[in-house]
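Good day; I would like, with your permission, to put a structural problem before you. The record follows directly beneath this note:
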Amino acid sequence: MTLMPTPTVLDRLLEIGELFQHDMATAFEGTTLTPARVRVLWVLQHSGPMTQQALASALEVSPRNVTALVDALEEGGHVTRSPHPTDRRATLVTLTDDAVARMRTMQAEHAELAAELLGAVAQTDREALERGVDAIATRLRELIEADRARRAGERTS
C-alpha cells in the first residue's frame, strides 16, 4: 500500500483555485459568460465606462484580446460601445442596465461566499490568514513579474 504524501500549502492553494474555477463554470453554465468575460464586466463595474485601450491595460491583455471579449459581451447584451465624448478615435465600453443588475447580484453573492468561507476559520485566526494570503499573493506577483522581466531580457539579447 502506497501512502499518499501530506498535502502542502501550495497543494491546498491549487485545489482552492480549481474549486473556484469549477464553481464559476457551474455558475455560468448555459450563459455566454466565461471567466474572462466576467473579469471584463467586473472591471467595468468597479471602474466605470472605459476605452478598450484602458480596458486592455487594466486586464493586462492585448488590445486584440479585449476586442474579442468586448465583441462577445456586446453580442450577449452585456456591454455597449459608444463614441468617446472628447476623443474621436476612441470608443467607450459601458455596461448595459442588465449587466449592472447582474454585477450587483454577483457582488452580493461574492460577499456571501466570502463570509461563508471565512466563517470556516476561527475568528482569532482570520487576521493571520488574511496577512498570510496577502503575503503569498504579493510574493507570487513579484515572482511572475521577475520571470516576465527575465524572459523579456532573454528575447532582447
About this structure: The two ends are 51 Å apart (CA to CA).
